[in-house]
Write a structure and sequence with these properties.
The chain is an alpha/beta fold. The protein has helices at residues 25-33, 53-63, 77-90, 109-118, 151-156, 158-162, 171-174, 187-198, 231-242, 247-267, 274-292, 302-310, 312-322, 325-336; strands spanning 12-18, 40-47, 67-72, 95-98, 104-105, 123-131, 146-149, 167-170, 204-215. The chain folds into 2 domains: 12-222, Alpha-Beta Complex (Spore Coat Polysaccharide Biosynthesis Protein SpsA, Chain A), CATH 3.90.550; 226-336, no CATH class. Strands 1, 2, 3, 4, 5, 6, 7, 8 and 9 form a 9-stranded mixed beta sheet that branches.
Length: 338
């Protein structure tokens, strides 16, 4: 298969990692299977669920051969997604996407995102809606306005930069890139950054339509992490930075590392192991400065970054000034640690 040329009706592989989501997985799969674009394979990777999730998927798969259930011992979402990527390549899927098993998608989700790929883009990105309630009433999308995105656009748009579930990827740009299994948080953002770093002349487009519905559960992983959990993400980005030769990508990676490491240090402020985390953060910042100190890529922000590196209290004031809810977070942390 020539990975640079798509067939007229390319096979789209949608990867759904599943772990104990028996309340939601049927809703998720039905939303994918009922999409207006039907040439799809849905790879459901059961990550050692202890509830009825696999049985629900099996029942759906018996009635729709586009659904493939793959079981594995509990190994985490990154390993599950990687297994899904391998399965999609085995089935010769030309385009790949990811949907979480407690979320759902608009009936035109695949059709509209795929139109961006068919227009010559490597990655097609849509907007999303964060919600605590389910609704299957959707507005039909008739006008699709696609905007070409470069790295500067990605920097400014957190949705475009961060989330993997709001996009379709041409399989060729994923290539050998995989999710890093030992990262608890931001593994999806790192995956996108790895693809940006690995591909020259990457073409991306933004479609400002809410086609993905993120179900906000209080017990989901995104609500359960500590500042130190961000540190492996910084380490992986430093590794990418050290081998990067593109100035724009180096700037992007550098800002990512500093922002993430500052955040990790601040979010660890009230933790019992703060001293150890603070020491690691200082080491990571020092390592980053060694790589970029002689470059002009961060010249405009150099003073600010140096200041935040040396004086964490000033970064705290910056966080509070830009997000007043951090004061409530600090109060809650102090109360918890009394």
């Amino acid at each position: 298969m020539d990975t640079n040329i798509l067939t007229e009706q390319p096979l789209v592989g949608i990867i759904v990692p599943i772990y104990n989501t028996e309340k939601y997985v049927e809703r998720c799969l039905k939303s994918i299977l009922n999409n207006t674009y039907s040439n799809i394979k849905v790879f459901c990777i059961d990550d050692g669920s202890k509830d009825e999730s696999p049985a629900i998927v099996e029942k759906i798969a018996k009635n729709d051969n586009r659904v493939i259930l793959i079981r594995q011992e509990n190994s985490g979402v990154s390993v599950a997604r990687n297994r899904g990527i391998e399965a999609a390549f085995e089935e010769n899927c030309e385009v790949i996407g990811f949907v979480d098993s407690d979320d759902w998608v608009h009936p035109q989700y695949i059709e509209i995102l795929l139109s961006g790929i068919m227009d010559g883009n490597d990655i097609s990105i849509c907007n999303y809606e964060r919600t605590t309630t389910f609704s299957n009433e959707y507005s039909i999308v008739n006008n699709i306005d696609r905007i070409e995105y470069d790295l500067d656009c990605i920097k400014k748009n957190t949705v475009a930069r961060d989330l993997i579930c709001v996009r379709l990827y041409r399989s060729a740009v994923i290539n050998k890139n995989r999710f890093v299994k030992d990262i608890k948080i931001k593994e999806d953002i790192l995956f996108n950054i790895m693809i940006i770093a690995a591909n020259s002349n990457l073409k991306e487009c933004w479609i400002d339509q809410k086609l993905y519905f993120y179900f906000d559960r209080d017990n989901s992983t995104v609500h359960n992490f500590e500042g130190k959990d961000l540190l492996p993400y910084s380490r992986e980005c430093i590794a990418l930075l050290s081998s990067c030769n593109d100035e724009n990508k180096k700037s992007f990676l550098t800002n990512t590392i500093f922002n993430n490491t500052f955040s990790a240090r601040y979010l660890s402020k009230f933790a019992s192991d703060f001293t150890a985390t603070d020491r690691i953060c200082k080491d990571l910042l020092k390592e980053t400065w060694k790589i970029v100190n002689k470059d002009n890529i961060i010249l405009k922000r150099k003073f600010l970054l140096k200041t935040f590196s040396a004086f964490p209290s000033l970064y705290r004031l910056f966080r509070i000034a830009t997000d007043r809810t951090m004061l409530d977070w600090e109060k809650a942390q102090k109360k918890k640690n009394k």
